[in-house]
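Final report, closing paragraph on structural work. Over the funding period we assembled a curated collection of sequence-structure pairs, and we close with a single example.
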Amino acid sequence: MSLDKILSISGKPGLFQIVTQTRTGAVVESLIDKKRITVGAHSNISILSEIAIYTLTEEVPLRKVLKIIKTKHNGEPTEISHKASKDELEEFFFDILSDYDEDRVYASDIKKVVQWYNILQKNDLLNTIEEEETADISEEE
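Its predicted structure, as stored:
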């Protein structure tokens, strides 16, 4: 499963994967409790493959940030919780992406990245990040 099929829905905890699309939206399944819900076009949905993190020089795709976290933690869950203090989260993220833009990347954004990484890790979906990146490189050649 690629990050193109993984969503974050505003107002709903965790991540969701698209099961099927409907005329008015989509049926999605929670990666936390496997419950299915229908989301309409009115819902504020973010597709993980379209999210990027601001740095001082560019925008880094979330896929690359997740891959860096995976590499630094050997594919294991992070030692820090998304419920950690603002200072702990910022210190963790500085270790991951040292040139992230502190003015535009908020503690709430870092919380989401940590939580999303741990959800993807728990559901064994981190390998799809590397597969997607390999496919992207193959297409460029």
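The CA atoms of residues 51 and 63 lie 8 Å apart. The radius of gyration is 15 Å. We thank the funder for supporting this effort.
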